[in-house]
Amino acid sequence: MAYELFYWTGIQGRGEFVRLALEEAGADYTDVAREKGDDVLMPLMKEAKTPPFAPPFLRDGDVLVGQVALILHYLGPKLGLVSADPVEALWTHQIQLTMTDFVAEIHDVHHPIGVGAYYEDQKEEAARRAEEFRADRIPKFLGWFERILSKNDKSGYLVGSALSYADLSLFQIVEGLNYAFPRLMKASSKDWPKAMALSSKIRQRPNIAAYCTSNRRLPFNKNGIFRHYAELDAAD
Amino acid sequence: MAYELFYWTGIQGRGEFVRLALEEAGADYTDVAREKGDDVLMPLMKEAKTPPFAPPFLRDGDVLVGQVALILHYLGPKLGLVSADPVEALWTHQIQLTMTDFVAEIHDVHHPIGVGAYYEDQKEEAARRAEEFRADRIPKFLGWFERILSKNDKSGYLVGSALSYADLSLFQIVEGLNYAFPRLMKASSKDWPKAMALSSKIRQRPNIAAYCTSNRRLPFNKNGIFRHYAELDAAD
Predict the structure, then answer these.
(1) If both were cysteines, with which of A49, A167, B52, B181 could B57 make a disulfide (CB 3.0 to 4.6 Å apart)?
(2) Cα dihedral angle (A27, A201, A76, A55), rounded to 10 degrees?
(3) What is the per-residue pLDDT across A28-62, written as a single tens digit (0 to 9) for each?
(4) Do A129 and B116 touch (CB under 8 A)?
């Protein structure tokens, strides 16, 4: 039976981390809201016996799983996208959870006051938060991925000797940052050569390349997590 | 061999969610930095083969695990604090991950502009963020826990028929919110009767009660995640 992915239409958003794993594996899946509309989401969040707090969530028969990192932890072994070694699988999950933290921070740069107000109503606060984000947080997170890749230098992947879902998520983060902060990334990408090389390698994988040129891959836009507001990017 | 917990001294912080599980289970553990100082933390984050991004992390022999929710997912079966049923264990992990998101939001109320600046230098922004937090986010998260407890009404626990680490974490969140937002919690706790009842039940468990009166339980303070600033709380 096909996996059913539930996520808001109109944006890549957090659902994209799950899509990339399903696409890389060539898995049979339905992007349910894109077929039936966003109205399919709320009933499950109310009526399910184990109601997810927010999209994305995945239904696999009787099992309903929410939280991106947990969906990937669940799918990893089924899609061949995580090591069979339990300690390596644990480490992959830990990396993904740290990516979750990073993604939340990336979102909050344009919404420091909260999700309820428009960006336009928190531009000054966003500009202030973006300073620290550019100066400290981007280097801290990207530097961490770079350090992990340096410690695992033989394979070029984040964990062990093979591709995992965490590598696909790193690709998505790099793509998103390139879109949202092009000047900053252009100026700093030399500082994370291994992360950039891994990201380029993922981009060229046949299933990912095919997906990225398909109409299933929505373009980045100003409703998603990664948003390009020139005033939040580094100076020229 | 004793579990080794690594976390900053001086605050309960995120480490407390792990401590409560270890204490409830009567596990043999060392709170390493409290014995040797905070200087023990950084070397592991630099030199470990799988370097955690930030404290807390747990060392169990050769295994090093970071991220609160993952530490609890790892310890759960060993401490008898999660269901042996894999789908229930997955659900417990999902609840804990949503608590992680909630805890990050609770922290960001007093630090909306970033962790690098003092609260005193972002008081206006914090006041603005706190409005949405009180009006929308607290009800959304506490309402979600309440809904889960209503769906699992027979046991009074979050998952299945027995205590799990997620119940202990809910207790910690309620205690922290009571400290940080006493007026808001006093006014709203009638809206989440099941969550409040579970929290009270946890507080009375012998090992938790003993721990909470021991000197291992630090008081809440203005350096931790849960901070009491009267100006961020609800009006009288």
Answers:
(1) B52
(2) -70
(3) 999 999 999 999 999 999 999 999 999 999 999 99
(4) no
